Amino acid sequence: MAKTNRALRDEVLNPRGLMPDVQLISLAPRLSDLNDKVIYIINSWPVGSGSQLDDLLVKIGDLLTKRFPKAKIISKAKPSVYGTDDPEFWNEIVKKADAFLYGAAPSCATTMYAITYTGLLEKRGRPGVPIIFDNLIEDAKITCDEIGMRIRWVDVPYPPEKISDKQVSEIINKIFESLTSPLSKEETKTGIYKPPKPEKITCMGTFEEINNYFYSKGLTDGLPIIPPTKKRVAEMLKGTSHFPDELVTTTMWPAQWGVIVEKVAIVGVMAGCEPKYMPVLLAAIEAFSKCGSAVRSTNSFSYMQIVNGPIRKEIGMNAETYALGPGNHANATLGRFLSLAITNLGGGQIGVNLMGTQGNVSSYTFCFPENEEDTPWESFAEENGYKADESTLSMFATGWSHCGNYLGGSVDDLARAMAQFTFPSGMVVLVAPPRAKEWAKNGYGKKDLKNYIWSHANLPMKTFRQDSYYKKFIEPILKGKAFDNYHWPKNYLRMSDDAVVPVYPREGVQVIVVGGDQNPMMQGWKTSHPTIVSIDKWR
Fold it and tell me: Which of the residues 53, 54, 61, 142 has an alpha carbon 20 to 30 A from that of 75?
């Protein structure tokens, strides 16, 4: 019997992205008292839109008035969507207020923006206190690190309906202290903070030891990884002509870290990718850096990636039967790569800045090619101005809602189902080739199908206005307050309750042909608008 060799131990490269330098900024000077002062109370969401802060902010305003009878309390909702800059509103606060409170809804993204905009106003000399929920403290902490300010927040218990009058009184005490107590040395620091650079080698060990290490540090998706050894990473780098130290992005979400080509190769190895996939991996990082802010949310987002052009065949992707299912190495590992990249290259931490309440199974892997060979229409890339011989990657923030498996049902069935989705900003309808050919045979192009779905995904205006997202998203957009890429008709604001209207923006409906020829299946995914990037530039 041959002697057993000692277990092979490898050095593995560090997958962590590059934390940016941070400009440290002092908080604004504190007040001596709140009497004779103007205090703004800002609700990050419109009143009645489900922020769960409405009643608490009213109680805080009432109690502040009783405690400081000479203070002037002004309560206002932020005029536009919580994540949209509001220069006119900020100017009003700087001009009229001596201090402010900023109520953040129980949302990871809203908390991040409440801290961020508080910092913006502090920078302009107005002391402020975000009111955040205690289950989002870690999100607030990491945002303070990112903006370089030690914002003073007051955290309140979640859910807010259980907050007692005594606790409201304690909240007022904390608000007073935050607005009046002198600043500490830490709170007045300025200059540049340079985070330590990640070490080149992260660990050494056997396959099992390496996997245990990566898992214990929260650097995996819960599944085993391929250890990113120097040799494997060097092989992966052969898949692109770009230099290892070339910067791919400075804004990889959720923490907006910097990413170089070598780090993409490291994470590609971990995901099980092959070197020839490198241009797609680099394109994915570029696209996600442009559209990935939604990952920092208590919603449970995922990201749909669609590949078009010759590279689909070059790397062996599956666009036919089971294209969205397991079984194809390229589809599976390309999709998995993004999940690992969000953690390692973007600084994602579950429970800190990845706060999806339920999570989403499609976060594991959601990447597939369009079936360009079996469609009667132009491809999605060609539809968006690219040539047939160009390779592209299109990314959609998605995963909120999904409906499908319309085998014998009509397109009307799908449209009716899609009309029920909240905040109907966009949808992707995945159509199997038989359904596309059926429409083409009857003389309809892809644009005709998109228009049909758009016009039939409708609701009475009264029902549409009752959508939970209407007041906090759609109405501000209709009033021109946010999101230039969403274009509902302005006359929706004036329409009667019984008017029946399409609930999606016309440009929000996309059609992709994918799958086999077994039957005329369709399915719909609620999505954002697409971000489309060239893969060829990364070859």
Answer: 142
Question: At 235, is the secondary structure helix, strand, or coil?
Answer: helix
pLDDT reported for residue 53: 87
In this predicted model, which residue has the larger pLDDT, 283 or 158? 283
Beta bridge partner(s), residue 306? 368, 394
Per DSSP, the chain holds a count of helices (H) and strands (E) of 17, 20
b/e burial code for range 510-536 (CB count within 10 A of at least 16 → b): bbbbbbbeeebbbbbbbbbbbbbbbbb
pTM: 0.94
Per-residue pLDDT band for 400 (boundaries 50, 70, 90) equals: low
State the average pLDDT for the chain.
94
Q: Encoding tokens for residue 315? A: 């790397």
Task: With CA atoms as reference, report the closest residue to 332 among 206, 242, 217, 221.
Answer: 221
Burial 130-161 (b: 16+ CB within 10 A, else e): bbbbebbeebbbbbbebbbbbbbbbbbeeebe
Confidence label for 5 from pLDDT (cuts 50, 70 and 90): very low
**361's tokens:** 């199974």
Quick one: how far is CA 28 from the chain centroid?
31
pLDDT value of position 3: 39
Query: Among all chains, which residue has been given the structure tokens 């206190």?
Result: 129
Which domains does the chain possess?
26-189 (3.40.50.360), 201-401+529-538 (no CATH)
* pLDDT tens sequence across 245-258: 999 999 999 999 99
205 bridge partner residues: 10
Written as one letter, the residue type at 98 is D
